[in-house]
Amino acid sequence: MTMPTELKQELITDQDVAFYQEHGYHIGPQLFNAGEVEELRHEAIRSLKGENDFDCMPYFGFSGESGFDPDSQEVQFAFNSWWINAKMRALIQSGELGYMASRLLGSPEIRLSLHQVIWKSGQAGDTAQQEKTTVGWHQDAAHFTVFDSPGYVTAWIALQDTDTSNGGMKVIDGSNNWGLIKDAATFFNKDLDALKEKLLPEGKEWVEKDLILKAGQMSFHDGLTIHGSRANLSGQPRLSLVFHMSAQGATYNKHGDYNPMGVQMGPTVKHGDPCQDPWFPKMWPVDNGQ
Ligand SMILES: O=C(O)CCC(=O)C(=O)O
After folding, report:
1. By Cβ atoms counted within 10 A, which residue in 108, 154, 160, 198 is the most buried?
2. pLDDT averages per 10-residue partition of the chain, 290 residues
């Protein structure tokens, strides 16, 4: 796909890239209008239910296995719904996400590592129930050690206005420059205070930034940026699309921690094999376009 220079400049500027490198996050454009957000919500919910546009089976780990329950007070996921959903595939191939990721990571090629639909329920309940939707402070790269990658960036697309009232994302300013922290694969640990104590390196400052987004807008955070989110107390679900993308050169790491993403490489994978199509689709350049 060829993307006109004006469109590229509209999507992301040199200042945005410099900010990202220093702070570890970027508030991106509102790429989708109200009608498109409605469509994406519809397709996201179809994905959570395991509804299939193609002949393959859903990637394991989607809520449909136990039945998507909109009233559940647990966070619910559809992992790699691009396998089964035409709209999610189109997003991966559209070029915009991949282009912005290539600028942020300074990488000529970008591949998808993992895609998630995340449903964070918003039912009021007792405090213990509400805290079930807390996402622990973690680094994405710590969850992805099954690969050796020069870098990761995650695009997080809000499918409703999102702020602290509905459990919006928070990042720790500048933590992208603290390196890979030991035992930081802590998405499912809900004790935010204990995690802060564990993950904060000596001599560093913990500054939380809220990623406040309009419906259809996206944020980006680096694979090394510590991030998490508090409970959704809004009474309405918080729905988002997440694309974890890798810089050029990611390979399988047999010494990494178990992750179903590694299983995608198949039973004959060898240490050092490249992550490639079809499991890790190229998001930039698209059709050799620049
Ligand atoms: O949606 C959330 O609250 C957390 C998502 C997350 O950890 C991520 O996008 O990397």
Report:
1. 154
2. 71 97 98 98 95 90 74 88 96 96 98 96 68 92 97 98 96 98 95 96 98 98 97 92 98 95 94 96 78
**Residue that the structure tokens 């499991």 belong to:** 279
Could you tell which of 226, 227, 239 is best to mutate to test the pocket of ligand 1, judged by most ligand atoms within 8 Å of the CB? 227
Is 84 near ligand 1, meaning CB less than 6 Å away? no
Query: Distance, CA 288 to ligand 1 centroid (Å)?
Result: 30
User: What gap in Å lies between CA 259 and CA 239, rounded to an integer?
Assistant: 24
Cα–Cα distance, 144 to 256 (Å, whole number): 8
Residue nearest to atom 10 of ligand 1 (CA): 140
Q: What is the pTM of this model?
A: 0.95
Could you write out the DSSP letters of every residue in 105-164?
HT-S-EEEEEEEEEEE------HHHHGGG-EEEE-HHHHTTTEE-S-EEEEEEESS-BSG
Measure the CA–CA gap between 106 and 222, rounded to whole angstroms.
12
Q: Which of 231, 264, 219 is nearest to 97 (CA)?
A: 219
The domain segmentation of the chain, as residue ranges, is 5-276
